[in-house]
Structure formats: structure tokens, C-alpha cells
Model the fold of this input.
Amino acid sequence: MAHLFDPIDVGLLTLKNRIVMPPMAMDYATGEGEITDEVVGHYLERARGGVGLIITEHLFVSPEGRYSARQPGIYDDALLPGLERLAGTIVDEGVPLIAQISHAGARTTLEASVIQPVSPSGIKVPGVEAEPRELSVDEIIRIADAFTAAAARARKAGFTGVEIHGAHGFLLGQFASPITNHRTDEYGGSLENRMRLSIEIVRRVKAEIGDDMVLAYRLGADDMMDGGFALDDAGKVAQWLVDVGVQLMDVSGGLVGSRSADEGQGYFVPLATAVKSAITIPVIGVGKIIDPLFAESIIADERADMVAVGRAILKDPEWPKAAGVKLGVVG
Ligand SMILES: Cc1cc2nc3c(=O)[nH]c(=O)nc-3n(C[C@H](O)[C@H](O)[C@H](O)COP(=O)(O)O)c2cc1C
Done:
């Protein structure tokens, strides 16, 4: 039986425990998306708290894919010095650091976008103000180029891995969802077509980073909306992603609203459990995990291989150390 503080292999990497700090946008970068002392300090404090793996907040892969005004970017080589400093600082602390790379599509906030937001079909994401326009096929291919170039920068900067953001109604989630994707070409309609861009990006990123870096995917396993991407399809999609190189499946959900305050502890863990039954790579479960005993039970009951602890680690960077003490592992 596995435990929260047992090591786990992810690709060629061995993590010291199963606690992950998931991506959480802080908006501490400059207006150009450069890494600041505040960004480095934020992650360093949490690396020192005993976490096994950190996944950065979403880094935007191209200017029109930016979500917010002070979001960190990975869209240009000019950003490399800051990214190198961030990756070097955290990895030197002994904690692997994965860069989440993302395009916000129609979820960009108006304040951040200088040009009209883009999306699969020019359809608004429910509840989001931005009025997007439809992407052409040429533009879709350029977005795959931007993700690939971003992954190359993550490699140059010294990150341990890359996570492609396919959840929460961001661009790849917009392609996956029948609510926001009404295309009639090869990028819309069937499940295979709606996943085509994600699969192509994973394939190209894998070719770019090779086996030395971890390749993770944040899968929106259920839109939690009528007519949306549903859990029934998630296992099949997860296997397709594994087939093209994904080594770590970070399972979340919600076309909008991934961070509920009202749901119970472990609210998205059932999605991870369902996906885990379809694939053999490690799967991360998430959703208001607060109590270390609860986190331990998720691992022990094999409902997920790793747990992401988001807001609890934001509030208390030492959450993993305190969990070790509570479980009698360290201290
Ligand atoms: C302030 C904040 C920012 C977030 N930013 C991101 C993000 O950049 N990328 C992402 O995939 N999820 C993001 N999330 C979702 C978290 O990764 C996580 O899935 C969610 O908070 C649920 O976990 P928790 O209940 O342990 O906080 C964010 C959540 C919070 C609270």
C-alpha cells in the first residue's frame, strides 16, 4: 500500500513524496511577463515547505494567449534570464519544477489583451466577458508552434518538465468542449477532432523536450456543464495523450470554476480516480484537500497516485512538513 510520503517515479524522475503544489496564478510578474523577485520568493518559500513537486502558474505562450496583466510569460527568448533564475532557484532547493504552459484563448481578460481574443469558434466561454473571434487553420498551427517554442524555452531555462494546460476553459479546453467548439473542420465535431490540437501539441512538445524532462498534461476531465466535455470521454482521451508522450496526468475539471469554495474536501478526486482506471502513468487528484489524513487516505485507497494541495499551501507554505508531523513521518 502506498503512502503520502512514499517516493514515486514520474518518467525518469523520482519524487520524494506525493504532495504537489498545483499551478496557481499569482500575477507577480512585470507587465511584459518577466519573472520578478516576488515570483521567485513565492515559489522558494513553498519549495522549502517540504512539497515533492511544484507546477508553476500558467505561463503564456504567446501575447494573444495572455490571461492577465501581470501573468508571467514564456513567449519570447528575452524572458529566459528570469525563467532561468526561477527554475535554478527551485531546482537547487531540491524540488523539481514543472512549467505550466498555456494559451487563454477566449478566457483572456480584457485588461490583458491588446488584440481581440481568439477561440475555436468565436464563442464566449460561459460567464467570461471577452468577445473572441474564430481562429483560422493557419493560426491554429501557429499556436502549436508557440507551445513548442515555449517548451524549448522551458528546457533552456532548466525546468524539470512542462505541463500543457488543457483544463478550466483555457484554449485547449475550449477546443475539447462541445460548448465552445462548433467547428466543422478537422478541429471540431468528433472527440478525435476536438482533441486534435492538444494531441499535436503534446506530440511536438515531446519531440522538443525528449525523455529527460517530465511531460505533464492538465486534463479537464469534466466540464461540469450540460452539453460539455464529460467524464465518459476522459479515460479515452487520457490514453491518447499517454500514447503521444504524456507521463503525468494532472486531473482537474470545470469549464469555468475549478476552485470551488463550497464543495467538499477532495471534490475533483473522483475525476482522477476515473481517469486512473484507464491509464498506467501517475495521476494527480485535486480539490480542496486540506487535512493530511484525508490526503493520506486518497493515496492509500489508490484513488490517485499524488495529491495537489493548492490553496492550503498558499495559506501555509509549510503544509507538507506539518502533514509529515501529523502522519508521524517526519518531525
Ligand atoms: C489563486 C489561484 C490561481 C490558480 N491558477 C491556476 C493556473 O494558473 N493554472 C491551473 O491549471 N489552475 C489554476 N488554479 C487551480 C488550482 O491549480 C487548483 O486546481 C484549485 O485551486 C483546486 O485546488 P485547491 O482546492 O487545493 O486549491 C488556480 C487556483 C487558485 C486558487
The radius of gyration is 18 Å. The longest helix spans residues 137-157. The pocket of flavin mononucleotide is lined by residues 22-25, 57-58, 100, 165, 167-168, 218, 252, 258-259, 286-289, 309-312 (CB under 6 Å). DSSP finds eleven helices and twelve strands in the chain.
